[in-house]
Amino acid sequence: MLTRLDLERFKCFELLKLPLAALTLLSGGNASGKSSVLQSLALLHQTMREHEWSTRLMLNGTTIKLGTVSDVVDKVNGRQNFEIGIIDDGPSYLWFFAGERSEMSMAVARVTVENVPHEQLKLLRYLLPPELNKHAASLANRLRNLTYITAERVGPREVYTLEDRQIATVVGPAGEHAVSVLHWGRDEVVLDKLALEGSPKTRLRQVEERMRRFFPGFALSVQQVPQANAVTLGLRTSDDTDFHRPIHVGFGLTQVLPIVVAALSASEGDILLIENPEVHLHPVGQALMGQFLADVSRAGIQVIVETHSDHILNGIRRAVKAERLQPEQVAIHFFRPRSAESPQVVSPQLDKHGNIDSWPDGFFDQFDKDMNYFAGWGE
């Protein structure tokens, strides 16, 4: 499991050393750096996945497009380089990337593994010297196969393109491969810790059962279009109706589906990055999503989630109070715009009852501020 992420001169961070847990929640205002944390891991993933032997970090690919070097280097303290560091259950890895500001990729100038620097790198595999040990190979495998789901997920479609199994190994950043992953893996068995009773443990049936927790009466049908590389998705939210086209059942279902498919397709040790899982969900569904993500992390899948929803947070707190997750398995980080007066990241702590030890100004407190305003206690 990744236990810490270090960023130096990357985007809005001069220096960040961010503890990670089985379930890590990133919160805070807009443009405070939450997405940058996920993007740093997505860059490593993208390069490892699309360019196995590359000696350069690819800033633009099918997973993420960040522009040029000038777009990703900290504009206050950086010039032409930045560092990404990972501590992975003890061993540490640090990449030093450099490039001209107009370039769209960056050279791997140095890789430091367990405090041993490797320079003049003419050959890399998955951004690491190929002679490294099995632990490094394990890290590379998890980064290469991680799932990154952005806030801009595809909406309802009449038909969904059916991709080859080799392409649709993960649901994709916009969830664009979710239906393909579900179709090809419909008979794969999900992790025991994520399997719900009452349905077969196969992916298709467990996805359907899990979606029922968010949308009572939910059922789905995935059918391949004859003589075409396409599938149709039929959805319903009542046993009394026929299956509908996705366009007729609202955005919420199609926004949640890629997250559920990704989680139930994952193996123990995998990494799942999610932006705004609360999109188009009613507050009840948002709280359920928090509890679901807690269950996913309890099953051995590392989850790092960015959210603006206090209901997601409270769902996680409820899971801790119910002892479905231990407080030390959760890391909560509140990001603020950079300033000289206050730290950029504050990390409130949970206790075993789900209580939070401190509530920094701006940390899911807008409801209280609004109520105080209406009560005449503040402006």
Describe this structure in words.
With 379 residues, this protein is of the alpha+beta class. The chain folds into two domains: 250 residues, P-loop containing nucleotide triphosphate hydrolases (Rossmann fold); 95 residues, no CATH class. Strands 1, 2, 4, 5, 6, 7 and 8 form a seven-stranded antiparallel beta sheet that branches. A six-stranded mixed beta sheet has the order 9-13-14-3-15-16, with helices on both faces. A hairpin with a 2-residue loop joins strand 1 and strand 2. The chain is globular, with a radius of gyration of 21 Å. The chain starts with a strand and ends in a 5-residue tail after the last helix. The mean pLDDT is 93.
Q: What is the structure about, briefly put?
A:
The chain is an alpha+beta fold and 379 residues long. It is 27% helix and 23% strand.
Question: How are the SSEs placed, and which strands pair?
Answer:
Layout: E1 2-10, E2 13-19, E3 23-28, H1 34-50, E4 56-58, H2 69-72, E5 81-88, E6 92-98, E7 105-113, E8 116-119, H3 134-144, E9 147-149, E10 160-161, H4 178-184, H5 203-214, E11 219-224, E12 230-236, H6 251-265, E13 271-275, H7 283-298, E14 302-306, H8 310-321, E15 330-335, E16 345-346, H9 366-374
Parallel strand pairs: 3-14, 3-15, 9-13, 13-14
Antiparallel strand pairs: 1-2, 1-5, 4-7, 5-6, 6-7, 7-8, 10-12, 11-12, 15-16
Helix pairs in contact: 4-6, 5-6, 7-8
Instruction: Report helical residue fraction.
Output: 25-40%
Per CATH, the architecture of the largest domain is 3-Layer(aba) Sandwich
Structural class: alpha+beta
User: What is the helix tally?
Assistant: 9
How many strand units?
Answer: 16
Main sheet makeup: 7 strands, antiparallel
CATH superfamily of the largest domain: P-loop containing nucleotide triphosphate hydrolases
Order of helices and strands: EEEHEHEEEEHEEHHEEHEHEHEEH
Determine and state the CATH class of the largest domain: Alpha Beta
Distance from N terminus to C terminus (CA atoms, Å) equals 45 Å
What integer is the average pLDDT?
93
What are the segments in which pLDDT stays under 50 over at least 5 consecutive residues? Answer: none
Percent strand equals 15-25%
CATH topology descriptor of the largest domain? Rossmann fold
Overall geometry comes to globular
Total domain units: 2
Radius of gyration: 21 Å
